[in-house]
Amino acid sequence: MEKIKEKLNSLKLESESWQERYEELREQVKELEQSNTEKENEIKALSAKNNQLDDEVEKLENQLADTKQLAEDSNNLRSHNENYTKKNQDLEQQLEDSETNLKEVTEKLEEADLNSEQMGRKIIALEEERDEWEKKCEEFQSKYEEAKKELDEIATSLENL
C-alpha cells in the first residue's frame, strides 16, 4: 500500500512536471505564432511596397519611352525635346549625385563600424590593463602594510631598548 502511495506521488510529481513543460511549450508556440504573424504582416507590407514600386518603375519607363517617341516623331517639338533631354540629364546627374552620396555614406558607415569595433577592442584592452594595475596596486598596498608593520615593530623594539 505504501509503495502504491509512493508511486502515486511520483506520478503526480511527474504529471506536474509535464504540465509545467506543456505550459512553457504552449507559451513558446504562442510567441512563435505571434512572431510569425508579425513577419507575415511585414512580408505583406513589403510586397505591397514592392508592387507599388514596380508599378512606378513601369510608369516611369513608359513615360520615358513616350518622351523619346515624341522627340523622334516631331521636328516641331525640338525645343520640348531639348527640355526633356535636359530634365533627363538633370535626373541622371541627381541619380549620379545620389549614388555618390550613397557610396560616401556607406563608406562612412563602414568606417564608423570599423572604428566602433576598434574602440571596443581598445576598451577591452584598457579594462584588462586597468585590472592588472589594480592587482599591482593591491600587491603594493599589501607590501606597504607589511613594511609598515615591520617598521612599527622595529620602532617598538628600539623604544624598549
TrEMBL record:
Keywords tagged on the record: Coiled coil
SUPFAM superfamilies in the record: Tropomyosin
Pfam families: Tropomyosin
The keyword Zinc-finger belongs to this UniProt entry's keyword annotation: no
Biased composition, class Basic and acidic residues, residue ranges: 79-90
Chain positions covered by the region annotation Disordered: 67-99
Keyword hit for Coiled coil: yes
Name of this protein: Tpm2p
Natural source organism: Saccharomyces arboricola (strain H-6 / AS 2.3317 / CBS 10644)
Species classification: Eukaryota, Fungi, Dikarya, Ascomycota, Saccharomycotina
